[in-house]
Amino acid sequence: MIKLIQNEWMKIFRRTGTYVMIGLLLFVLIVMGGFIKYQDSKGSVPDNSEWKKGLQVQNESYQKELTEMGDAIPPEVKLSYEREIAINEYRIENDLSPNEEYSVWGFLTDTSQMIEFAGLFTIIIAAGIVASEFNWGTIKLLLIRPIKRGKILAAKYLTVLLFGLFMLFILFAFSAILGMALFGFPNEAVPYLNYYDGSVTEQSMLLHLINYFGLKSINMIMLATMAFMISAAFRNSSLAIGLSLFLMFMGGQLTRLIAIKYEWAKYILFANTDLLQYFEGAPMVEGMTIGFSITMIIVYFLLFQAIAFYVFKKRDVAA
Amino acid sequence: MRGEKTMDTLVEIQNVTKTIKVRTIIDSLSFNVNKGEVFGFLGPNGAGKTTTIRMIVGLIGMTSGDIKILGHSIKTDFEQAIKHVGGIVENPEMYKFMSGYQNLVHFARMSQGVTKEKIAETVEFVGLTDRIHDKVKTYSLGMRQRLGLAQCLLHDPKILILDEPTNGLDPAGIREIRDHVRKLAKEKDMAVIVSSHLLSEMEMMCDRIGIIQQGKLIDVQLMTDFVQGNEKIYEIEVEGKEKAGRIVKEMYPDLRVQLTEIGVALPLKRENIPEVIKHLVNQDIHIFGVKEVTKTLEDRFLEVTSQKGELVHD
């Protein structure tokens, strides 16, 4: 199995396209870093003396809106207000200023948006990894080895996951290095304030970011799995890339639209891939729980894999 | 001639049928291939050669029947069966963005016990040592074919399967492949299955041929028997060929008498020649000469396919 993964890895990294993708990722991070640095040096240091008062004012206005709107307020907004209030109160009690200086942590939080970018490249790899063998005609040489088709496909899927991890690692590591070089390390460790189930807890920033990266990459893993499934079942990389990217950009929006009207939207994959909604916002459809979402993700995952393996194992390689 | 199973039998094709939707592509095909022989698979385009070859290597499933390689079924015991097989199916498509050597390393990793020395030895055998570290996209078709051959010899297979191995090659390339194939069969005692629609090439390469038409195996013969057949055609140069033709027809009503430019052509057995000549002379036909007309492989092939083809249609 390790040899098969080695093979797939070799086939990915012998192509120039892969280096272009990595280069693009690094380039975007550098541009982002430069841009933030430029803006940062021009902006004034926030006034730090009166922050407690500011937060109190903020909380009062939140509270006022909550009571004024009453039942008319959307649950999502209500939850985010409550969250803000709780965190602000916690800050005041524990003497934690929100006006910390922009540091490597801030930069890492900003660059985590780039996970979608890394996801896009993983989707491209996933979409090509089976379909390309058919296009190149090499599938005929690949499948007449003393290795079962299922094992070859499994090796390919694991390679996709590894590549995804590799891209995430590059993103995280390069952002960290770049962030430290440009913005430095904060003098004292700043904790992340986590609000879950009505209470606020302090969390180490590093742990929080790893968590954040992990949860955000679920969406990317599911889309890559889908692209892989289309690639294995339909032997068509363009279809796999096209459909997966379309759903990557539109899937969430479409689901949100459907969710306004129909409750069954909660069974759509994209209502469930964003597990952060349970920690930092409100679920897309009322009544959804994190357990439900995890179950749905597993069901979709197994479905994609079942289709991919079933079709790939049965397929007559005729072309 | 289909070949009973013997100790030397490496590949057994047992009553294999393939239907796609309602169309029968391959119809109860059976034959054996033995070690040390080159088995040619001959047939017109679309007869089912490639489909059969792909079924032997497990790329295409079969609807019924079984294929056994050294006694292991390709259906139920794929890994054990296929590990004795090396093959090129149609053109040897390789990863063009990698070097020839990297391609070989790639395939070597997929079989057990292929050492670096073995790779070097195989490269030497096919004569690619000078260019093996160049990218495949810079290779000529002949070099790609050599790399393809190297790829299927890495794991010392007992059976070699080549689908249209000389497609698109120049005469030198064709000869090279042919020499390799003969050498492997004779020296390494491999069983080689080659498919082609090029008769002359098959004639020089194969020991035995199977002819396939419309998915049916219509004949399996030793190459030597096939080319000669059991009867020959004799052309008798005469004056008044119509009359001569009629006389012969009276003697042998079943004989297919053909009129040629200079006389009559008769598919006769050797022992019947004196009798025919005697009869013709008695009837006042002037005979100027008798000569044996050797049938070309092409004649034989068309003959076999059209005869059996008629039978199939009846």
Automatic annotation (TrEMBL), chain A:
One Pfam assignment: ABC2_membrane_2
Keyword Lipoprotein belongs to the record: no
Sample GO molecular function, one term: ABC-type transporter activity
Keyword Zinc-finger (UniProt): no
Membrane-spanning ranges: 12-36, 117-136, 157-185, 205-227, 239-259, 290-312
Keywords associated with the record: Membrane, Transmembrane, Transmembrane helix
A single GO cellular-component term on record: plasma membrane
Protein known as: ABC transporter permease
Organism for this UniProt entry: Cytobacillus solani
Taxonomic path: Bacteria, Bacillati, Bacillota, Bacilli, Bacillales
